[in-house]
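Archive maintenance. Older records in this collection stored only the sequence; we are now back-filling the structure field for every entry so that each record is complete. The fields below show one back-filled record exactly as it appears after the update. Entries are processed alphabetically, and isoleucine--tRNA ligase is next in the queue.

ARCHIVE ENTRY
Title: isoleucine--tRNA ligase
Organism field: Chloropicon primus
Length field: 1078
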Amino acid sequence: MARMANPAYSTWSTTTGASALATAKRARGLRACRRFSDGQGKKTVARCGARFGLRCPAYSSRVSTVVGTSSSLACAASFSRKPFARSVARVSDRQQEGLCVVGLRQAARGGCVKASGKKKDDDNPYSDTVLLPQTDFSMRANAKAREPELQAWWRENQVYEELLRQNRSAGGDNFTLHDGPPYANGTLHLGHAMNKVLKDIIVKHRLLKGKSAAFVPGWDCHGLPIELKVLQSLKSKERKGLTPMSMRGKARDFALKTIGEQAEQFKRYGVWGDYEKRYQTLDPEYEAKQLEVFGRMFMEGHIYRGLKPVNWSPSSRTALAEAELEYPPGHKSRSIYVAMPLAETKAEALEGLEASLAIWTTTPWTIPANLAVAVNSEIEYAVCKMEGGGSSHLIVASDLVESLSEKIGRALSIVAKLKGSELEGCTYKHPLYERTSPVVIGGDYITTESGTGLVHTAPGHGQDDFQVGQKYGLPILSPVDNAGRLTSEAGEEFEGLNVLGDANEAIIAALEREGALLLEELYEHKYPYDWRTKKPTIFRATEQWFASVDGFKKDALDAIDSVEWIPKAGVKRIRAMTSDRSDWCISRQRKWGVPIPVFYKKDSGEAIVTEETLKHVIDLVREKGSDAWFELPVEDLLPESLKAEASNLTKGEDTMDVWFDSGSSWAGVVSAREELNYPADLYLEGSDQHRGWFQSSLLTSVAVNGCAPYKTVLTHGFVLDEKGAKMSKSLGNIIDPKNIIEGGNNQKKDPAYGADTLRLWVSSVDYSSDVLIGPSILKQTSEIYRKLRGTIRFVLGNLHDFNPESDAVSYDSLPLFDKYILHQLVTVQEEVDSNFESFQFSKVFQTIQRFNVVDLSQFYLDVVKDRLYIRGSDSFERKSCQTVLKHMLDTLLPMIAPILPHLAEDAWQNLPFQTSSKSVFLHGLAEAKSEWKMSGADLQELEILRSVRSEVNRVAEIARKDKLIGSSLEAKVVIRTDSQELHTILSKYSESANGVDELRYLFICSQVDLKEGPAGEGVTEIPEVGTFRATIERAGGLRCARCWNYSDTVGTFGDHKELCDRCHPVVQGKKAVANVAA
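Back-filled structure field:
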């Protein structure tokens, strides 16, 4: 429990869910107040002593504030949005005692009331001489209403635009964080929110540092997901009558509508950017730039058309890139072991034997496309006589004989062994067709980890199979259509069967009928699914357009090494993905996309692409958009020199992979805009983009310009629930960022925390890995926000009568306690800036949080309340403290602005003095003043004093519990030490010329007694200084009716016998400014 320094503090507990009961004893003729709260928002009664004649008719947490925690000091004066008078409640929360003097029913409306029937002269005559905080800055953020007001104010005053102009005119360097475009097909989730907030924190910090940090938000607009959304919105009749152009029109409308909605959501997060100049991959200029990238790659020989197996989605009826696949756990395939009887053999070990090659596959439907069996030349194979198999033998890898024997339930006796290289050139009979095929040598993909060590090879249905087939000149057989049905090439028995369904059943049955099936079993493994339809995909050879990555792979790997990857593990990940990847299939069989600008000869199918045709199409697209390709006849799409051949040409129907769309953004946006840097200074996305946007952007940029499109790549993890589980509808654990900001249907359960609390959470987590969020985490985060807001409110309230032009005290004249907190401030400022620069926002959060709680609430703001409330309004003690508080705001508000822009701006708009900057952002980051850094003896002494203070707080708390004292002001602190060094340091602060740097104010007690000699038992050690023991005694003298300090001087002044020597001159001379109720 924290303590109060003097009676001019009012604490109003906001404890939730339990009754709050505060009872105080009578002391020296003053009756204390009693407060009762049932925690349900019901009426609370507070009564005050007759001496002050003030009453608290109600209690309300709406106007409460708590500054600080723990045993040091927590409670600042409660003050409402409007200045209020006579708020001289004196409450020590160590004993919950004091005078509750604010009528809170009226305080909630912005004012206070005096007890009725009492004249001012009958009240405590000193209440109006206590200087309490006054500010319009509300303790309640009311974020649901206030944040949109601030955002509207930013827009009306063009703060973002003005800041950019200001920085540019001052010669600020460009800083470009290039926005990876979210997909325009639905509402935003917490992953989007975290991503955009991280970007905004970085951009705002760079803007505050004077950089020209323009942020251009972007959207990915083409592709199948949007087509599916359109189809889902149509009735079946409408779908049948859908033409390519009507599909494109509906898809465009859907994308633009979604972009508008998402943009408003991003703005509500407080994210700044050039929304009016945003980039959209459907914009004609962007599409033209994308086609220029394609054209450059084509002319450089990096684009080609070929018949190759690609990932094919039967459910979407299109080819897919690797980045469009996902691998859900738990997939089970029907795997089979099949005997392929040898036809001819050249191996001596096989002469005169009836033998079969034992192959294993998890795709029975590819058996009709089998054209070879591949072996590893280095693996040893065994020829095994099979029990119950007559004279038949099986050939299997020696290491797998035992496991195969167990699986098929037959003993296998090895009769001979041979190397894989000896099997090359043998031929075998296909078990279902009248054809023979060769045994070939495969690559390292053939192992003895599973299966049989012999690989069924279908060049039309696998990458490795295709490569081996090319080597041996095998045909590419792919008897599967776009819908995933077997064609007539598979034979009449299987034609029309679905390869992912009944085709497997029929083929397995046929193999069993022919005596070729050794075993069928379910096999669980990773298997690719279409990330959009969530259905299995297949490998299928089709005519597609490819980017030949091998042609520039070395340059791409070199470019990767030139980039800074954060975290560092990112470089290994993208390097492995890039070095292992095959050629990039960039064509898609969809309508909603950027067309691949290729013409084909009708008679031969030859593709026609020239520099001239490319330029003409690009110019048309720049003018009319990519719809021109689908709308205009071939003749209009051809340049003048080829128009005569229009009748023999047809235009291609393929569109580009959407990763080519977004992967060209460095050309469509970054290098195209003068205010942006190319390469961009930073790309920031989720870690899944190593295989997506990071890689597609890298490949296109390296292919065209020979360099990476970014200098630094920063990745973040995924958002999980509080238990570390992935969010999903089935688990019911999805948290909508909109509900965090605006509140849910049940505002008690899901309160409206506002965007700043969401942003504070983003800054608090280590985003380099997966992060957690949930109700309890949000509640903790909001409490941290509330404490910081309370601190800012306290500082603002105590500057209501401060004029920086005339009242500021020079640094050299400041008391040592003030210089010490400025030292702490500039240290924090340097740490925060360094962590902002290195993108370690959780360290920024921790540093600011520690400074607010430990250095401000528990220390400095605890100590200075006496100076602020009790000293004269024009006194040095008060003005010096106000000077420091003003420095605090100048530094702290811009410092927190990147993370908490609404809080910082709201506070700035409530500054009680004139400032040259209308916005905290236009003010910029305060310059770290090196002269404020302390060193040497002064710093060491103050650190020692803080250690002593911690021990004093501890023993004072014990004394309070033992009822030796109530308020800490009833205490005299006795410190005994046999350390000459420590005694000298403490003696130095027994009294001070400035009335500030004294132990009694540091300890918030009435008196301090230093004694030399053995400390006895229960000592506290300060390393390298010595030991001491702190004890508590009752303070001597009488209590001052104004400041509640005990002093021998109380009673010595004839005109004001209830006052001490500190308060008498304030009251006798120029009274402190009274707080008059509104």
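Update note: The CA atoms of residues 568 and 738 lie 33 Å apart. The longest helix spans residues 841-870.
Entry marked complete.
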